[in-house]
Amino acid sequence: MFDLLIRGGTLATASDVFQADIAVKDGVIVQIGRDLGEARNTVDASGRYVLPGGIDSHVHISQPSGEGIVMADDFESGTRSALFGGNTTVMPFCLQRKGEGLRSALSDYHALAEGNCYTDVSFHLIVSDPSPQVLGQELPALVEDGYTSLKVFMTYEDLRLSDAEILGVLDTARRTGALVMVHCENEDAIRYLIGRHEADGDVAPKAHATTRPIAAEREATHRALSLAEIVDVPLVIVHVSNRESMEEIERARRRGRKVIGETCPQYLMLTAEDLDGMDWEGAKFVCSPPPRDKASQDACWDGIERGVFDLYSSDHCPFRYDDPAGKLNPKGRESFRHIPNGIPGVETRLPILFSEGVMKGRIDLPRFVVLSSTNHAKTYGLYPKKGTIAIGADADLAIWDPAATRTIRHADLHDASDYSPYEGLEVTGWPTTIIRGGAVVVDDGVLGEGARTGRYVPRDRSSLAGPTETDVEQSSTGGIR
Ligand code: URP
Ligand code: ZN
Ligand code: ZN
Ligand code: ZN
Question: Any idea what the CATH number is for the domain that residue 335 is in?
Answer without folding.
Answer: 3.20.20.140
